[in-house]
Amino acid sequence: MRYIRYAFLACLGIALVSIALANRGDVSLALLPETLADLTGLSYRIELPLFVVIFGGIIAGLLIGFVWEWMREYKHRAEASRKSREVHDLERQLKREKRRADSAENKDEVLALLDEAS
């Protein structure tokens, strides 16, 4: 299984390197379109190789997806945490009742009734 994983990672690495070599040309990224940039005065531009833009888009998409999924599953994690606390409390109550039952068996019936009354 380990060799299959290494083979997959090697193929993925070769594919990513070939994409990067094929897309080395510089592209200009602008913050806003020219007409809007002239209006606002924000004419920020940067020159980057195309493969950086492609890989950056992929990474940004993955991060946004992970954060979106984490936020979407919050209610499930909260419910599981609540159920875990409830189970813990019930187990503690069960242990307490078992101890009480064990101590009641060892006592005289009259003393057990007096303990329950108080």
From TrEMBL:
Keywords: Cell membrane, Coiled coil, Membrane, Transmembrane, Transmembrane helix. Pfam families: LapA_dom. The keyword Nucleotidyltransferase does not apply. Residues 80-107 form a coiled coil. It comes from the Bacteria. InterPro entries: LapA_dom. Residues 44-94 form the Lipopolysaccharide assembly protein A domain. The keyword Amino-acid biosynthesis does not apply. The chain crosses the membrane at residues 46-68. GO terms for cellular component: plasma membrane. This is Putative integral membrane protein. It comes from Thalassovita gelatinovora (Thalassobius gelatinovorus). The lineage of its organism: Bacteria, Pseudomonadati, Pseudomonadota, Alphaproteobacteria, Rhodobacterales.
